[in-house]
Specification:
homodimer; alpha+beta; Uridine Diphospho-n-acetylenolpyruvylglucosamine Reductase, domain 3; Alpha-Beta Plaits; 20 helices; 17 strands; oxidoreductase (chains A, B); FAD (chains A, B)
Chain lengths: ~550, ~550
């Protein structure tokens, strides 16, 4: 890595100091390996409490829904024509019933894994006709309990619908089944000189369809914009089995309401996305990643303003992490911090990507040189090769796992005006300390710490309350306090993670009554029987 | 201007040849002046036939709608509390009843110009309760007859709702009344270092709200993406007077269906947009514009592929014009072509914009040098200053006026797969010549020529059939032929101009039955009485 502190003068010129990279590489690989096993690991420990028990006072099974019987299962067998497509074994079901944070656990007795859109259509039509409730499930990497059942809903997994359908290397339009894993889609595009216009930590597990159904934002929204802009068409099975198909849409098409938009972020409540057509940009030729240490949140914002001005069209990510999240990362990953010179209150990860490495280097060096001369940056490193670059990203992407490592985590994914953004972390900590619930080192306290990181470029904070155990007491301190705080600042209670089960009752903090009525109206319009992902969203 | 042909060697190095620019400046200014008066001019000549007469065989007034009476007018007076807000004078009404292409003319007896959202709400509620049909109208620059009445619908003009509400110079979020003129919004943003993420020829007249209501694409979609990605929130008055307001939304907000998306491109059929919140990018520091002459459409595509690869993140526009459109431009503008060395089959206008002029120049010069060495570009010029840059854009932007200058124009705004795109112009010409209707110089023929230009970067062709007179005969040759041709290639019959009145019956060429049913379902859901912009869209 290039160390900025040790070579401020060098940054402005050509003679860059390059730090030995071997240890950094080892670090990153360890972090990566840890991240890869993070999802699987929890299933070996004791099982999670049923959502029906944990939240029994708030939600009960709607008895209008039919209970699954043998005749239903037989019908589904006839549709799938493959017994591997049905999961009924209790042990096997566990993986689909639980979310990866181990907060929610449903009691579904049946997972269906259709291989074609037509099978999805026949399944849904049957469920709709018979009032069988369903939960669509992608990679099950969601953070709000949206992809697991609350009670006995049938799980429809898209994991067997996993083919790339086509790619046009002139226009960059990729058409894929919903169940294609994001990382696979991006690798396929990389082989063709293109890039998926979205990236996130769960890319090794999450599905393209799930990403669209939850309107995921991720790490590069700053550069490539939201899925509402890049998704060109969808194939969606509506609750009555009707197949809506706009997969042939070109980049511009102004003939009628843009129906596909309704399904982007609909979290499986009005249809099941089975296919996605998305416009992919050319893969940048040159990437740079820098990790910077700064002394205050205000300085983070100043660095951001400078980056937008000076890096402009090549700025592709601007992430921040607070110092407390880095303490936890060091402990959990058992690694030195990439910036070795000390502990700092805030860290910023900047990525640039462009078509000309020399130009990008020059822009980045000028920007960093200015930032250091102005005293905005206390220390920093620049990745010098692909491995170092990946390692820095791995460090950032390990945070969801790090923050859950003490036992559990309450995750709040919020949008706030930039000036107020970090104030929420301070406010949450204050409340937890006041209630005598939090201590970094005292194992008797249920909360380790409330830490913050996220996508400054999008005004998106991830507040993570890292806990040793989940408890009603913590929840009562945090909610509705956190939502009220956000509402007061006119933020959103869910920037990118969605509503799911967790935030169903908190939509009123981000949406007004007219909006909520309109949302309910659309839900009823498309899913009059309410079979799709019930007890959630709205 | 920098001439490429005379300085191919220079392009690769530093010693660029700069052509005398005075004549070019004069040209551009003349073109600009001509463009500015283009909309106003037609109103001085004889009046347009009523749509009700021209299309009487296809559409008749729906007698469920109430006819305006004095009591209605009195009520509207009481709402607006300003007699200037009502237009009832026959001469004054003409401007609002006719579209600028002079193809459509309604017979409205009343134009209302509310000054507040609340007034719009009270007007709509009254109209809905009394079954009075309405047409929302922005700058009335549409190309499909969507913003003028077909019969006696009341026109609700947004022109008095014309204030910038707020601008946040940290996030780039602009909030504006719907009636703010696009050019004014962009000038306001320029003063603050930002840019409106959309630009189009009619910017001096069209409204921000109209642009959103029609999901306009324009000249820089290639760089900044569609409005579905950049609009953050809307204020919309629904047919029953309810005010939907999502103006406080931040960049990311995943709480419920993204309702605002429905109104982007809804052409006034389910609500009236009264306010727009939009995310604006930082204004690039450096712009370059080059105009290139190439020998074939295939070569246009090759130049485009190269530009995407080599100009990548700084490419902000890639426009093409066929040689025939340039012949008409020379005649109408009475000016030499910016490229003086001869007539070429195709022309390409490339714009780059970025944060570092030196870097951009180097990228553009490398790209153009390569293109010329490969024999892709026959001649070309690069604007050397702001005035030359504007002049080249003016030349391109004069085409809508140029193509209408012989008397009238049938405009087809279509999306097609790139390889097929220009084939439609050839096919249309063939049909017209076959029917003995077209000749460039023979004044007895109704059609001058069918020409093509548009946004290659978006797969968007503007086919313009330039006529001396409008006639049923021409229309019968062109329709449904053009739509069938597009449908066969899986294109869209409206890339960016919308459906309006012109294409209401042709949506089936771009949308399948399920989609059309879903669109009709939403129309009925939001406008059960059908008072909003009837006889159009779907």
């Amino acid at each position: 890595m290039l160390s900025l502190r040790r070579s401020l003068r060098g940054v402005r010129g050509v003679s860059l100091y390059i730090a030995p990279s071997t240890r950094a590489v080892a670090k990153g690989l360890a972090a990566q390996a840890a991240r890869r096993t993070a999802v699987a690991a929890p299933y070996s420990t004791k099982s999670v409490a049923f959502t029906a028990d944990t939240y029994g006072s708030k939600v009960s099974r709607d008895e209008k829904y039919k209970k699954l019987d043998d005749a239903d299962t037989k019908y589904f067998e006839s549709v799938l024509q493959d017994t591997n497509g049905l999961i009924t074994d209790a042990d096997d079901l566990l993986f689909f019933n639980e979310d990866w944070m181990r907060k929610y656990r449903g009691q579904s007795q049946l997972v269906l894994k259709p291989k074609t859109t037509d099978q999805v259509s026949r399944i849904l039509k049957y469920c709709n006709d018979n009032l069988l409730a369903v939960v669509p499930q992608g990679g099950n990497t969601g953070l709000v309990g949206g992809s697991v059942p609350v009670f006995d809903e049938i799980i429809i997994s898209l994991s067997n619908l996993n083919k790339i359908r086509s790619f046009d290397d002139v226009t960059g339009i990729l058409k894929a089944d919903a169940g294609v894993i994001l990382e696979n889609a991006d690798q396929y595009l990389a082989d063709n000189g293109y890039i998926f216009p979205l990236d996130l930590g769960a890319k090794g597990s999450c599905h393209v369809g799930g990403v669209v159904a939850t309107n995921a934002g991720g790490l590069r929204l700053l550069r490539y914009g939201s899925l509402h802009g890049s998704v060109l068409g969808l194939e969606v099975v509506l609750p009555d089995g009707t197949i809506y198909n706009s997969m042939d849409s070109l980049r511009k098409d102004n003939t009628g309401y843009d129906l596909k938009q309704l399904f982007i972020g609909s979290e499986g409540t009005i249809g099941i996305i089975t296919g996605v057509s998305i416009l992919c940009p050319a893969r940048p030729q040159a990437f740079n990643v820098a990790l910077l240490a700064v002394s205050s949140y205000e300085t983070v914002l100043k660095v951001f303003a400078g980056a937008r001005r000076e890096l402009s069209e090549i700025l592709s990510a601007f992430e921040f992490m607070d110092g407390k999240s880095q303490i936890l990362a060091r402990r959990h990953l058992k690694l030195d911090h990439p910036i070795e010179s000390g502990e700092y209150p805030f860290y910023v990860l900047i990525e640039t990507s462009g078509s000309n490495k020399d130009h990008d280097d020059e822009k980045l060096e000028t920007f960093l040189g200015n930032a250091m001369e102005e005293g905005l940056v206390d220390d920093g490193i620049i990745a010098q090769d692909e491995t170092q670059l990946r390692n820095l990203w791995s460090w950032r992407e390990s945070l969801p796992e790090v923050t859950a490592s003490a036992g559990g985590v309450y995750k709040y994914d919020v949008s706030l005006p930039l000036a107020d953004l970090y104030g929420l972390v301070d406010a949450a900590n204050e409340k937890l300390v006041e209630a005598n619930l939090a201590d970094l080192d005292d194992e008797s306290k249920p909360v380790v710490d409330a830490v913050g990181y996220g996508h400054i470029g999008d005004g998106n904070l991830h507040l993570n309350v890292c806990t040793r155990v989940y408890s009603k007491e913590i929840e009562q301190v945090l909610e509705p306090f956190v939502y009220e705080w956000i509402s007061e600042k006119k933020g959103s209670v869910s920037a990118e993670h969605g509503l799911g089960f967790q935030k169903k009752n908190y939509i009123g903090y981000s949406k007004n009554d007219v909006e909520i009525e309109m949302i309910k109206g659309l839900k009823k319009h498309y899913d009059p029987n309410g079979i799709m992902n019930p007890y959630k969203y709205v």
